[in-house]
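User: Before I run my own analysis I want an independent prediction to cross-check against. Here's the chain; please return only the structure tokens and, at the end, one sentence I can use as a sanity check.
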Amino acid sequence: MRTAFINTLCALAKKDNNIFLLNGDLGFSVLEPFIDAYPARSFNMGVAEANMMGVAAGLALSGKTVFVYSIIPFVTARVFEQVRNDIALQKANVKIVGVGSGLTYGQLGPTHHSIEDIALMRALPNMTVICPGDPLETAEATKALAMLKGPAYLRIGKKGEPVVHINTPSFKIGEGILIKKGGEGTLIATGNMLPTGYAVVNALAKKGKNMRLFSMHTIKPLDRHIIIKAAQETPAIFTLEEHSVIGGLGSAVAEVLAENNQGKKIYFRRLGINDCFTLTAGSHDFLRRFHKLSFNDISNTIWRDLKKIA
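Assistant: Structure tokens:
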């Protein structure tokens, strides 16, 4: 995803001299194409993320389109006050790019995990929150954010994420993407859990359970229409995210369901990280298994639930 982001940003910057890129002393082996091509519009701000956000806001308020890149906890939790007051409150044209979604930096421990960032960012007025599901969505999201005037948060993985879409998807901020049709349940996935969700619905189809799959790449503004429609047309909705079940996609979908109850009983489950820090060290795949977010765990959970409500 990060390669798709920087390649797309380079192409956009070639046509738009107002695009700037700031980073917090990282991005080595990733950001060099932009740094080399546009040295006057690229700044390594050092390990001073709060200052970086202030500089980004200043550049944006002087007419620039500013992308800020760092590991997720360092551009969300560490600098929340600056993001809130300098960027969101001012409606500054700053795009915060957080790399390492969820448990991607598994072996670095809980300080580097991003399990509460969606909740933080979606709570901020004026903030758009986008979590693309594969490299193609990442490229399209970067294009869309470059055109968007105002604050935004782009949550991406690290490297090696598989491509889910066969062709470049039609991407619009605030509109989920239908990946697979089905009527026996709906799976709404966001971010780097989309490839796993895609594998799960295909496996369940072979067992006779045809599920609808959406990529909910935009958490805010949320596509309420597809959620309400899924509740009307399918008996169960599952949300899938590599984020706390509190405050992220699952919470956002639950809010829509609660506020639009039309008397139809529907089964709902949030699949994500329970309310805990991950104090066990290990690889990304290991930690997914630890939190029951592996392909097998998710498949078995949904299969059991669908059989119960059949």
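Sanity check: The first helix runs from residue 2 to 15.
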